[in-house]
Amino acid sequence: MEDTYQTFHIGINVFVVKNNQLLLGKRKGVYGAGTWGLPGGHLETGEAMEDAAARELMEETGLQANNFEFANVVNDRSGNQHYLQIGFTAQNTDGELTLKEPDRCEEWKWFKLNELPPELFPPHIKQIENFLKKTNFIDA
């Protein structure tokens, strides 16, 4: 019998919270354009997850974090592709919030945790729900 391995993608997403507000970016020119999502992207082969979180945060927002704390994981099997979405909370962020990828993001905006926009990026909905409930795993 032939060995076959499933392939799936790993998304690394970052929760940046200040003054009880969550940072979200309005997606542009990519899947989910017009919806609000977390800073993040794909884990690269051989990359440590916290390094990916730091890289994506810097590449997209210009912010740096001194530390990342594991927030949650979502085994997302709901779409056409299978994703593991892994979330980290950025601790002690520093730097000036900048729109570093204007071809992929219209703007960065702070939203009160209890007043998030209804147009959330579909792959991040369960992850954000878990974050707000302070749960760390969902098998969707």
Could you walk me through the main structural features you see in this protein, from its secondary elements to its overall organization?
- A hairpin with an 8-residue loop joins strand 3 and strand 4.
- The mean pLDDT is 94.
- With 140 residues, this protein is of the alpha+beta class.
- The protein has a single domain, classed as Nucleoside Triphosphate Pyrophosphohydrolase (Alpha-Beta Complex).
- 18% of the residues lie in helices and 41% in strands.
- It is globular, with a radius of gyration of 15 Å.
- The protein is built from two helices and nine strands; from the N terminus they run βββββαβββαβ.
- The longest helix has 13 residues.
- The strands form two sheets. A five-stranded mixed β-sheet has the order 5-1-7-6-9, with helices on both faces. Strands 2, 3, 4 and 8 form a four-stranded antiparallel β-sheet that branches.
